[in-house]
Structure formats: structure tokens, C-alpha cells
Design brief:
single chain, about 325 residues, 7 helices, about 50% helix
């Protein structure tokens, strides 16, 4: 993982939310501690009334906690004004709801362009951007359909397009497949997974365990508290792996001297071979020297015999010369 992905985008500390007064008081969130890093796909599960939707509403700045702190990026948003909350929602957070929440009197492209009207863009520019966003979901042919003319899957895809039209970094999805059949549900989840691959942080509330297979982190809530978090489980698994690797490296370090003992033997055998070759070389030198001595002696003998022949011939010539005289 890169440092960018490990940057916390959401950090909650001792977050508490209560509803009601006195004996009728109900604790919806009870001291939640949670850190969400950039680019994570988180699925939040739990029984009805465990606080999932309340947590999602606080994360989306639709509600405020009674106690604790909420940091969005590096800034605290625990006690900001309503206007400031609306601006942050429009710039950084996209919402996908179970009931779609499309406006019935507006057509598809107008529903998608709706968040852009709060940014100060002109109507024509907003509709152009909305049309391009719909193309990504293959809905450009239904731009001028009314919401009641769409299927459930198409309606939810329009809602996702509306959530993405402002290019938010965080997507909050509250039961996005709750009103869809299994086929349409998997189509929606595939599209959310594709959005996640582009670098968006997705936090999804769901009752369907099959949908959690698309997430890389699963949080289970019970009675307003986090009961389990697969991030902690993954940490434990990683620690165990590191411990195993550490023990393996230690054992390999201990065994290394055994392996090095065999190496000198091979070196010695090679040395002995080279020594044998070296010792064999002087023998050949001796043979060559003896051969040269033999050649020298034969040459001396030839010289001596030649000298004797010359002397005898000289004697004969001298004797013949005297006889003639």
C-alpha cells in the first residue's frame, strides 16, 4: 500500500449519539472509535437498530453526535454550521440511498444535474456534465425518461450517477441493493467496485452478506458498538505471518554454518587436483632435459668421429707424399 492510501479520510473518537430524554433515552452509538483510510471499500453489517444508518448519517454530515469528535481529512467537522456542512457534502460526499430519492417531476438527466445547481454552474453546463456522467452507466439513451419509466436497477444506476456527478472522494451507500433483485444487485455492486478502483472511498451499509464480498473491509455492529472489524483480523494474520517468517530466517541463519563446512572440502579437492597437475609438470621438464642431454652427447660423438676421420686422412696423405719423394 502507498502512503496516499494509508492517509485517514475519516477519524472518529468516542462518538456517541442518543435519542429521547430521561427513561425514553436510547443510545444509538456508544463510544465509536473508527479510522477509515483513503481508497477503502467498507461494508457495515449488523441487525436492525444496531446504529448502522445513524453512523452513516453522521459520516455524511446529515446528523451530529452528542459526544466525541469527527475529523474529515485533517479538519474537525464535529460542530460546524449547517451551511458549512452542506458545502462539504456537495464537494466531498456522494449519497446512494435504498429508496433512490429521485425527484418524480424531473427527468433522468435533470435529476443527475441537480447537485450541480448548488455549485453555481449554469443549467446548460450542468446538463452537459450530467449527460457525460450518464454515458459511463450506459444510460444516455434514457436521459429524457421520467423516473417511473425506469426499472429498479436503472433507477439505482441513475442515483449512483447523481452521487458521482460532483466527483466526490467519498461515497456513502445505505442499502444500495435493498430494493433490487439478485441480478440487478450484482450489476450495481460491480459498478460500485469499478468506482472504488478509481480511488474513491466507499462506505456501504448492507444486510446482505453476499454484497460484502465486494468490500475489502467488513465492520459488524451490535447495540451501537463495533463488534468486529476485519482490519484488526488482517493485522493479526499479518503479525502471525511476520512471526513465522522471522522464525524461518532465524533457523536458516543457524543452519548456515553447516552449509559452509561442506564448501572447504570442495575447495580442497580442487586444490589437490591443481597440485597434482602442478607436480606432473616437473616430470615432463625432467624428460625434456634428459632428452636434450642425449642429443648433446650424440653430437659430441659425431664430432669426435669426424675428427678421427680427418686425422687418419691427413696421415695417409703424408705417407703417400713421402713415398713419391
Amino acid at each position: 500500500m502507498t502512503k496516499d492510501k494509508l492517509t485517514p479520510v475519516i477519524k472518529l473518537k468516542s462518538l456517541t449519539k442518543r435519542y429521547g430524554i430521561g427513561d425514553a433515552e436510547q443510545v444509538a452509538l456508544d463510544g465509536i472509535d473508527l479510522t477509515i483510510n483513503k481508497g477503502e471499500f467498507i461494508a457495515i453489517m449488523g441487525p436492525s437498530g444496531c446504529g448502522k444508518t445513524t453512523l452513516l448519517n453522521i459520516l455524511g454530515l446529515l446528523d451530529r453526535p452528542d459526544e466525541g469528535t469527527y475529523h474529515l481529512g485533517s479538519k474537525s467537522v464535529t460542530n460546524i454550521s449547517s451551511s458549512r456542512s452542506a458545502k462539504i457534502r456537495n464537494e466531498k460526499i456522494g449519497f446512494v440511498f435504498q429508496s433512490f430519492n429521485l425527484i418524480p417531476r424531473l427527468n433522468v438527466v435533470e435529476n443527475v444535474a441537480l447537485p450541480l445547481t448548488y455549485t453555481g454552474k449554469s443549467r446548460i453546463k450542468s446538463l452537459e456534465i450530467a449527460s457525460k456522467t450518464l454515458e459511463k452507466f450506459y444510460l444516455n439513451e434514457r436521459e429524457y425518461y421520467m423516473p417511473h419509466q425506469l426499472s429498479g436497477g436503472q433507477t439505482q444506476r441513475v442515483a449512483i450517477a447523481r452521487a458521482l456527478v460532483n466527483n466526490p472522494s467519498i461515497i456513502l451507500a445505505d442499502e444500495p441493493t435493498g430494493n433490487l433483485d439478485s441480478k440487478a444487485s450484482h450489476i450495481i455492486m460491480e459498478e460500485l467496485a469499478a468506482i472504488h478502483k478509481q480511488g474513491n472511498t466507499i462506505i456501504m451499509v448492507t444486510h446482505n452478506p453476499d454484497m460484502t464480498t465486494y468490500a475489502d473491509r467488513i465492520i459488524t455492529m451490535i447495540d451501537g458498538q463495533i463488534d468486529s472489524d476485519t482490519k484488526d483480523i488482517k493485522k493479526d494474520i499479518q503479525l502471525k505471518k511476520e512471526e513465522k517468517l522471522g522464525s524461518k530466517t532465524e533457523s536458516s541463519i543457524i543452519e548456515k554454518p553447516k552449509k559452509t563446512e561442506s564448501k572447504p572440502k570442495t575447495i580442497e579437492s580442487e586444490d589437490t587436483k591443481s597440485d597434482k597437475k602442478a607436480t606432473s609438470k616437473p616430470k615432463s621438464d625432467k624428460t625434456t632435459s634428459s632428452e636434450s642431454k642425449e642429443l648433446d652427447s650424440s653430437e659430441d660423438k659425431n664430432k669426435k668421429s669426424q675428427k678421427n676421420l680427418n686425422e687418419t686422412s691427413d696421415k695417409k696423405t703424408n705417407s703417400t707424399g713421402k713415398g713419391q719423394e
